[in-house]
Amino acid sequence: MSHTPETLDPADWEAHRAVAHRMVDDAVNYVRDVRSRPVWQDMPPDVRSRFRDGVPEDGQPLPEIYRQIVTDVLPYPMGNIHPRFWMWYMGASNFTGALGDFLAAILGSNLGGGDHAAAEIDKQVVNWMKEMTGYPPEAGGTLVSGGSMANLIGLTVARNTMSGIDLRELGVGALPAPMRFYGSDQIHSCHQIAVEAMGLGNRALRRVPSDAACRMDLSALHGAIADDRAAGLHPACVIATAGTVNTGAIDDLQAIADICAAEGLWMHVDGCIGALLAIAPRGRALVRGIARADSIALDPHKWLHAPFEVGCALVRDAEAHLGAFSVMPEYLEGAPRGIASGAWLHDFGLQTSRGFRALKVWMALKEHGLAKFGRLIEQDLAHARHLTERIAAKPNLELCFPTAINIVCFRYDPGGLPEAAVKQLNTEIMVRMQETGIAAVSDTTVRGRHCLRAAVNNHRTTKDDLDILVEEVARLGAVLVSETLVG
User: Fold this and answer.
1) CA atoms of 411 and 220, how far apart (whole Å)
2) Is residue 168 part of a domain?
3) Structural domain includes residue 85
């Protein structure tokens, strides 16, 4: 019995072309008109229920599938491309980058390695990241999924390099003394996950107290290193933060680099929030010293507004970077010519199969130029200052911590309420703004103080949007206090 060969290519290319054209037209309208829609809205039960269906046994026409996307997906986004989304620290995407993702998917290239154009663009984008941060051209680097993975890459190289043994061969059980990594008490949680994944355990990450500005206390760092040496432990790495997730505080990178040089420690910078201040005319002074780091983690999907996901790990010593991950099995041997003659990019990280993340970054930088992205960073900083000033001038609103870069921590507090009641009040303000689609901020608790947190990292935001936020927080706060008093 003969069987007709099957393929995933369309039987009717023109029908697919029509759907694809409609998708592009709808996408242009969707981004162009984003301001006219609510930031976020809850999904009705019937929509949510359709995402509980089992796997389809048989297919259906593409127009029907796209119809469900239009009705069930596009109206219910997270909201981060909206100009009044300041919730978690993430970029607002850009249309050219989205086209880059589409073309990358069309090519279908695996960026594990090989000699092809996608690999060249990947390497070029990594080199651009070195330029942006002041790193030397010969440094190592790789594109990854995001900041958590970028930090893991840098810290893994630090662990292997500083261990004093052939750690890849012998494992952490052969360490002559437990290693210690140091970060402030404001460090991102991904670092705990990293030291646990590296087999060192959470105890290996020593949290150093921060000062009044939420920056690492350098005298406390000195003391922690000295105490650990005296206890027979092995101080190995200081994790400096260029932009803490709670308040945007930036550790003194120059001073930490001096300490690491004097103590013989690896310096890693978690710059996923603030490293790209280095491309901003006035912002670069805030991260002076970042180029002295042994490794840096940064996120193009934040201040370069690349569509998710793309992060970058840079390592000053390219040989140490390669030595931490390179494995060459017989089925991946290089060839003198042809497809397998190119660089094996998987040798710089954990993934053998890697998507073509670079194209969306490459296209947007080509279109807009680095200077414009630097100006957009300055714009975010100016917007954060504007929001800070508006909050300071508004009755019953108070700043909780100094605004270091573009993260503003504040809350509604009419006075006379216990801390638990202030937290409940502000949480309700936050949720009501989300549910009405007006604006999206997050909340956090720093040193026992609960506050709302606006991460102004959005190229679509205007000062008018921030004024709306201030007025809405004040209005909702007054309404909720009144309701409480009446009740």
Assistant:
1) 30
2) yes
3) no
Residue 430: give the domain boundaries.
371-486
Query: Looking up tokens 């750690």, which residue turns up?
Result: 167
Tell me if residue 159 falls in helix, strand or coil: helix
**383 has a pLDDT exceeding 50:** yes
Alpha helices, DSSP H, located in 277-369 = 300-303, 318-325, 358-368
What's the CA gap between 240 and 270, in Å, rounded? 6
For a pLDDT cut of 70, what percent of the chain falls above it?
A: 99
CATH at residue 152: 3.40.640.10
Which CATH number does the domain housing residue 472 bear? 3.90.1150.170
How far apart are the C-alpha atoms of 57 and 63, rounded to whole Å? 18
Indicate whether 72 and 114 sit together in one domain.
Answer: no
Q: Is residue 436 part of a domain?
A: yes
| Rounded Cα distance, 88 and 101, in Å | 23
pLDDT of residue 334: 83
- How wide is the angle at C-alpha 65 spanned by C-alphas 64 and 71, nearest 5°? 90
Single out the residue of 272, 250, 213, 268 nearest to residue 89, CA to CA. 272
Is the Cβ–Cβ distance between 279 and 258 less than 8 Å? Answer: no
Cα–Cα distances in angstroms (integers) from residue 8 to residues 337, 356, 375, in the given order: 31, 21, 45
* Phi, psi values for residue 45, rounded to 5°: -55, -35
Of 466, 260, 288, the residue nearest 381 (C-alpha): 466
Question: What's the total number of domains in the chain?
Answer: 3
Domain shared by 275 and 355, yes or no: yes
436: left (phi over 0), alpha (psi -120 to 50) or beta: alpha
- 408 and 431: one domain? yes
Say whether both 229 and 296 belong to one domain.
Answer: yes
Q: What average pLDDT does this structure show over 278-283?
A: 95
Q: Where are the alpha helices (DSSP H) in 218-357?
A: 218-230, 253-263, 300-303, 318-325
